[in-house]
Amino acid sequence: MSPSKQTILVTGGCGYIGSHTVLRLLETGYKVVVVDNLSNSSYESLRRVHKLYGITAASSSTSNFEDASLPVETLIPFHQVDILDREGLAKVFEFHPEISAVIHFAGRKAVGESGRIPLDYYNVNISGTVNLLQVMDEFHVRKIVFSSSATVYGDPPRIPIPEESPIVASMSPYGRTKVFLEHIIKDLCVSSAVKQQEYLKELEVHPKDHKKVYNYEWSAVLLRYFNPAGAHPSGIMGEDPQGIPNNLMPFLAQVAVGNLEKLSVFGNDYPTADGTCIRDYLHVVDLAQGHVAALEKMDKEQAAGTYGCKAYNLGTGTGYSVFDMIKAFNKAVGRELPHVVTARRPGDVPNLTADPRLANRELNWKAEKSLDEMCADLWRWQRNNPYGYNTVHEKN
Ligand code: NAD
Ligand code: WQD
Question: Where is each NAD-dependent epimerase/dehydratase domain found (predicted)?
Answer without folding.
Answer: 8-306
